[in-house]
Each structure stands twice: as structure tokens, then as C-alpha cells.
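Appendix B. Raw example, untouched.
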Amino acid sequence: MEILGVLLGVALLLGLGVVVLVVIGLIKAARAVGEKVERQEAKARRAVENVTLKAKSYTQTGPQGQISAVRLGLRTSLDGTRRVLEGSVGQDGQLGEALALLGRLDAHAAELDGELRMLEREPDAGRVAAKLPELRERAERITHSAETMRWAAQDRMHRFAADELGRLSRECEDEAGALRHWDSVPGAAGAGASASASASGDSGGSGAGVGAAGAGTAGAARETGGTRRGLTDGRGGRPSAEELLGLADPVAKLAQRLRKPTTGPSAG
């Protein structure tokens, strides 16, 4: 009974642990889904606000249209810089610091956007005209800082791509030069030396040497049948009947004797 109780307690603990793990997993999944939904909602809300600001900047005149244009330019510049930095930070880790600076810059832009939004609802036209130049100057400073980082990141990516392309071009040229060095192959050099030695021997040798060379060449031609036979090319790998019976040499000698012309006076 005690063993059964212990086993039952262990089973209950295991079941409780599984339940806890399932609950934790569900909570994490729900939190991840919620964060994703919030991000999508924020993107959709921001897209709607951008479209609204663009429409106001084109349709409204006076300070209201100017405020909408300032807000739209501020958002466009920050969004463009963030896309460039986030898209390249995986390839260049040094852009992470620039991305952190952009986050701080975005916080100042959010405060400025709130002030501009409040200024849009300001009924006093005099106060709007007095505050708008200051807020526009702050927006231009933020926009210039964001654009400076974006342009620097783009120039950095282009420079790295150009350097990599230059190294690759030099490697390709070196490989092409190595492939063109066919004259330095050892076999070709040996063949050239043999050809020169043969030419000098032929020019300085006697007639007897030439005859011996011709006889050797004829003998080699008779032995090989005029062409070099391969082992597995299907043209001469199989021995003939004379070779199998050991009659190859007598038959060759007889044929050579019959081909020799007679040197004495002809009969009759």
C-alpha cells in the first residue's frame, strides 16, 4: 500500500507539472499573439494617420496644412531610416548602435508630434503662427539627423558591396591567368626538348644512323600494326590466333623474306 501511495503521489506530481507547463505555454502563446495583434494594429493606425496627414497637407491651406506637412515629413523620414537600419543590421552589427540612436530620436519625434497635434486644435491663430516656426525647426533637426544616419548606412552598404566586388574581380582575374599558363605544363616542356634533340641528331647523324632509325621505326610499326592499340578500346585488346599459337614471329619473318627483291640476275 505504501508503494502504491508513493506511485500515486508521483503520478499526481507529474500530472500537475504537465498542467503547469501547458498553462505557461498557453499564456506565452496568447501574449505573443496579443503583441503581434498590437503591432499590426499600430501599423494599420499609423498608415491611416499618414494617409490622413497627406490628404490634409494637400487639401488644407494656411497653418493647418503646414502642420500636417511637418508631421508627415517627420514620420516619413523616421520610417525610411528605420527600414534601412533594421534591414541591414543583420549583416552589419555596427548598425545596432545607429538603431538605438534612432530609437531615442523617435522618442523626441513622438513628443514633437504630440505638440504639433495639439497645435492643430489650437483655436488662436496668433499662437499657431508664433509656435509653428519653432516646432518646424525642431522637426527639421530630427529629420536631418534621421536622414544623415540613413544616408550613412546606405553609403556603408554600397562601399562594402564595392569592396567585395573588387576582391572577387581580382580573384577571377588571377584564376583566369592561372588557367592560361598551359605552356608551363611539364609534359609540354619535355615534348619540346625531345623534339629539339631529335632534330639535332638528324642533322648531325650519318646515313647509317638514319637507316637504323628507319629500320627501328619500321620494326615498331610492324610490332604495333601501324597504330597503338589500347587495352580496353575494343580495337586491339584481343590477341590473334598466331599470337595464341606462338606463330607470330615465324610468319612475320616469312613475309619479310618474300617481300625482299632478288639481287642476282634474273632467270631465263
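End of appendix B.
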